[in-house]
Amino acid sequence: MVNEIFSRWLRWCGGAPCFQVYGRGRQEVEWRTVAVYATHRRNATSRWPLWAGTCITWTSQVVVVGWDFAEQLLHEQMANPASRQLPVEVAGGRLRDRLRRASAGAASLPTVSEILAHECGHTWQALHLRAAYLPIGAAFTLFREGPRFWNRFENQASEQGQFGGIIQGSIDRTFWHSIRVPPR
């Protein structure tokens, strides 16, 4: 109940999302619609402490990213689209573990689609943890992935998250017209 009310409030405050995506946890059968909002405060060049270059999952239905991230994701999806039949998952189940990623045959740095898959993992956690999600997320997200028990929250998001692509027709017109043509 708290998740739905907070999601509605965030959507009311945020207005139209930048776009919507299909997301789920591996254990879920059905795909959920996740609204992706973009703000300049989360751009990689932002001067806001702890906000620059970050993505955050607020609820099972709302993810907030930087405009630069949203633009990169759109370009990446235009070149190599994800779908519900071929979803993007975090290679090796970790964003930053180079050995696990290499053994999975992936590059050492994750793609923006993999980062969004990780955030979809957090939407799955929010769905199950309900009102406890935000305090748990706030307490453990800064520890990132790793081998210790306090890394379990982030590890689980990377292991569970699946990104099933951008929902057709959901891209906001203002966002669409503001993006730059990708370099050749």
What would you note in describing this structure?
It contains seven helices and six strands; from the N terminus they run H-E-E-E-E-H-E-H-H-H-H-E-H. The chain is α+β, with helices and mostly antiparallel strands and 184 residues long. The chain has one domain (2-165). Strands 3-4-2-1-6-5 form a six-stranded mixed β-sheet, with helices on both faces.
Largest sheet: 6 strands, mixed
Total of DSSP H or I helical runs spanning 4+ residues: 7
For the terminal residues, how far apart are their CA atoms?
47 Å
Categorize the overall geometry: globular
**Radius of gyration over alpha carbons?**
16 Å
Strand order of the largest sheet: 3-4-2-1-6-5
Percent strand equals 15-25%
Helix-strand pattern: HEEEEHEHHHHEH
Compose a concise summary of this entry.
This protein is an alpha+beta fold and 184 residues long.
What key phrases describe this protein's structure?
40% helix; single chain; globular; alpha+beta; 7 helices; 6-stranded mixed sheet; 184 residues
